[in-house]
Amino acid sequence: MTSVTRRRAYDNGRRAAATEEKLLSSVERLLHAGNSFTDISVQRIIEEAGVSRATFYAYFEDKSDILKRLAIRVRETSLSLAQQWDPGAGEDGAARYARFFEEILALHRTHHPVLTALREVAAYDTQIRDFYTADLEEFDEAVFSTLREQQQSGATPSDLDATAASRIIVWGGAQAIAHHITVDDGSGDAALARELGMIWWYGAYRRPPG
């Protein structure tokens, strides 16, 4: 009996995951097709996914909720890449950060419609705006922590203001990447990644002492 119960629970879980994925994928397809998230109605989403309105609301509170869930996927991948940061590693830090930014640029290009929608909705939806800023604040805190650790080890100059530096390179970097993807066809990604890596490394982590 126990095995039957577990099997049913497993099957139900798989069906639920498949339905949720169907809804998420339908929104991604609509965004990749060039639709503005603001103009995509719940009715359009359920038609694209082939599910009922009741099913949509069984998985998501509203349109903003489904956008958050899509953005969380991108954030989790970004954080996974960021957790590999190790300013104390032996290789050249600027080259390492350049590789990191190439991966981030590739990730952002893949999910550009979702990230564009996130910024679009953040302009008028406080819930999404809070989610968006919390995402960047988490990266800001991670960079601040590594800068402080490097200062304590003597590798980063003590006169560097870690709070200001982390804000500039995280928030400014995010804006630079978003703009770059909008105006560049991808041929300039390596150059942007290299410059970001150099700016992070030699402008903050290994900046000459004042």
Question: What is the strand and helix layout of this fold?
Answer:
Layout: H1 2-32, H2 42-49, H3 53-59, H4 63-82, H5 93-110, H6 112-122, H7 126-153, H8 162-183, H9 189-205
Helix pairs in contact: 1-2, 1-4, 4-5, 4-6, 4-7, 5-9, 6-7, 7-8, 8-9
Describe this structure as you would to a colleague.
- This protein has helices at residues 2-32, 42-49, 53-59, 63-82, 93-110, 112-122, 126-153, 162-183, 189-205.
- Helix 6 (112-122) crosses helix 7 (126-153).
- The chain starts with a helix and ends in a 5-residue tail after the last helix.
- It has two domains: 1-60, Arc Repressor Mutant, subunit A; 63-210, Orthogonal Bundle (Tetracycline Repressor, domain 2).
- The protein contains nine helices and no strands.
- With 210 residues, it is mostly helical.
Short key terms for the protein model shown above:
210 residues; 77% helix; Tetracycline Repressor, domain 2; elongated; Arc Repressor Mutant, subunit A; single chain; mainly alpha
